[in-house]
């Protein structure tokens, strides 16, 4: 590709032919305001917020669509450009309802942001506004307010270009254009949540998230979705130890700007149904226990058996680090060579050629690389230590082989919580650091958003203490923690 | 006056192949096929023929932008969407001389090496539609369209495609979208249609009148065409005259013709002895002229530009002394608000806003600030959008207010003077 | 379930041969549908979408963009009076007002007996023979109130 040289706000820029002015400006750190432009979508060029001036050009140029030309002298911050932006803002606001106090987009609304930057003048519009419908449940967890729509078509394009379906459209024309699905039909694609992300205003909001939290109270942490082997890069938004929403995070090699709804709304397992204290199950009675008591109990259970015939069962949704620890523990402390793994295997996993894979585990590649074997290969053992969960089939297998579950490292409630002798709470993916290897073989990092909830502790910590206990050979020793 | 385009108008059954042939129709074809396509383009370039759809761009030059041999079909789209208020000249050509248009299509297609043409005709047209459909059918039957036309090794298929009520489909890229089965939303340029148009292929869009001039140019040569008109605006053009004249109608005159003569001689002047007040010379989208300006200007692209207006589509709308210019402007603003496709912010919002303000002013609720606001809104719409529909109302607003201030002030004076200044906010 | 008649299906097949994509036949197909069913209802739009392998949402956006598709039933005689400048200069507003009074309906309405519906439309390219209107697809030009009366009387 030939290179083109131009200057933007006095800075020399050199980019490939075909680059747009907006992108070229970005390469030298100049941000041009925009609504309809989205780097992951085809160009629409309709909002006109990105107008800039170029020398020798009679008219302003829409920088999101205008290609660079050799020797161009572009200005993005002259008085005239600023006044162009102000006028676009004014046009956008004349028919816009003044919903801000009750609009859930508050805090991440481009209209508010740019209004403060460019407009800030009282309305000169004294006419009747165009009225449209509000509070429409579009389906797929998306709420629509037609009056707030600025007709940027981002949501239409996201459905077409990401989900591959044409479910949204702008009907009518002129200032009566109205964003809608086909009347009577619901939005129903598995990527519909992305429409909410791309909507620059409060026209599309998430039913799940609406009014739960003002966004400025939320903290953000980079992570990876554990929902399937794609491992979409995400941002976990949380306050204290509660997750409020997941947003996709750009990774052009994995998920671009997007994520699926299954993953997006799959954070229940972080907030709810958590096992937050250790438990000791004895003769059908389940009792909560401090971690020390639980560990001591577990150690004595283990010592009653032949350690090297204990099998450890990892999980294809655990991080590489956790799996490694488990393996080291088995090798060094138990002298066992039995490393198995379990995995989530829903009966009819949805998958497509977009993002969602049929493998609903975040780290299958990780268990494979460490040489863990599927639990169905298990022939015999004196007991098992299980991480995270087992499938119904696997539980039946253990029953058939009469292998007791000595310990269950649990994130969420499961039938195993009563079956296992000892239940030890561990953190969810939102509370720990580590890596998943995705379907493409990419090793991706997760970062803890908050401290392990309740009395849950990292698997590593549990195992280190257990190791110490086992090594202090029979004698009861106070463990430090 | 026998000129270029309208020689058969008024002849009995002028729309039939029989009459067309009898009166010299399809005579250019032999000459055409003896020429190289490139030579045809050169001939049309030297005739100086400019697009009659409104923009006045050199026809031959536009054709020369079509890339050749890129492995994609080339299309010709005939713009028969004629919807610009005040314009009804293409309708005349479609109704009275559809074969002349078809002959023009053959010439254009041959020149740009296209074998497929679509005639995009506005949905409301009924007689025009039937006439052009019939003419196409006749031409197929006569072997003038279809396979090996006129016995030459050249195929040409022509399809008549009906619009469905949208002024904006006259804009060439909106027309292409409409033809592709989409909303009539103008496209971002570049790419221009000549490079990537219909179905992503090189496409030329030409107006009916532009194409209808081609048989003459090929038959008689570029120089013969240049007999009429001025150096920069050669040839003849159709002007549709409407409003307050004794004999409204479509007139073919050489470019450079005095507007005064068109109004007072050809059209018989203003009825009932009234005085001329204003003329919109090129369809409703162009700036208005005062009577004085109208009586001085000549009808060519350059002369009209001197008075800050444009030749546009040649729709001459004549208004007598009784016309209230606020009322007239509001009529136009309603049109543009109704016809904006709604893509671009300034046009979608601005057209409706201007219309609502003018309506309020007309109802007696306007102030002097409203006039200032109208000017500012217009400035903010002009040159900032994907197509020029936004400019098409901004220019009338600016010119009406500038040239007929008294009409506007009459409406707002009583209001503003009463101290009822509107509180901003 | 609605369906095109065999004859209309044939017309559609023929029409499709003129375009490289099925979608390009959308306007012609909506015209055929309007001829056959009278109104372009949501059901019709879904049917058309199926015929052309395009989404119902797309058909909806197109059908609501163009003004000539009847999304609601119109009268046996659909009166479309031009309201744009050249007609207005020649008294077009009077024609519209007269029709409203005479038929007792407003723009966008249908008479109770379903015979007439009325709407105002933009320039019909009859400005030289203003004022103008269309009744169904036929043009009526150089109108005045007497002429309109006569035309209405003749419509059975
Ligand atoms: C809003 C708008 C409406 C237009 N309407 C028409 C029209 O009805 N007929 C037409 O021939 N050109 C129309 N044009 C001009 C076309 O875009 C285009 O320039 C023309 O068809 C090119 O043909 P020509 O070069 O032969 O004039 C319109 C342009 C705009 C911006
Ligand atoms: S709903 Fe939002 S994303 Fe969709 S067009 Fe409107 S403003 Fe744009
Ligand atoms: S595709 Fe997979 S990884 Fe991506 S968001 Fe969905 S479930 Fe999560
Ligand atoms: S200027 Fe108006 S008509 Fe033209 S593309 Fe923009 S919104 Fe549509
Ligand atoms: S961002 Fe460029 S036009 Fe919208
Ligand atoms: S203004 Fe009525 S037909 Fe043109």
Detailed description of the structure:
The complex is a heterotrimer of chains A (481), B (425) and C (156). Chain A is built from 13 helices and 23 strands. Chain A has 481 residues and is of the alpha/beta class. In chain A, the strands form 6 sheets. Chain A has an 8-stranded mixed sheet. In chain A, strands 2-1-5-3-4 form a 5-stranded mixed sheet, sandwiched between helices. The longest helix of chain A is centred in the first third of the chain and has 16 residues. The model of chain A has no long low-confidence stretch (mean pLDDT 94). Chain B has 3 domains: 210 residues, Rossmann fold, CATH 3.40.50.11540; 85 residues, Ubiquitin-like (UB roll) (Roll); 90 residues, NADH-ubiquinone oxidoreductase 51kDa subunit, iron-sulphur binding domain (de novo design (two linked rop proteins)), CATH 1.20.1440.230. Helices cover 44% and strands 13% of the residues of chain B. The radius of gyration of chain B is 22 Å and the shape is globular. By secondary structure, chain C is an alpha+beta fold. The two termini of chain C are 32 Å apart.
Summary tags:
heterotrimer; A: 481 residues; alpha/beta; five-stranded mixed sheet; 23 strands; 25% helix; 22% strand; C: 156 residues; alpha+beta; Arc Repressor Mutant, subunit A; Glutaredoxin; four-stranded mixed sheet; elongated; binds flavin mononucleotide; binds iron/sulfur cluster; binds FE2/S2 (inorganic) cluster
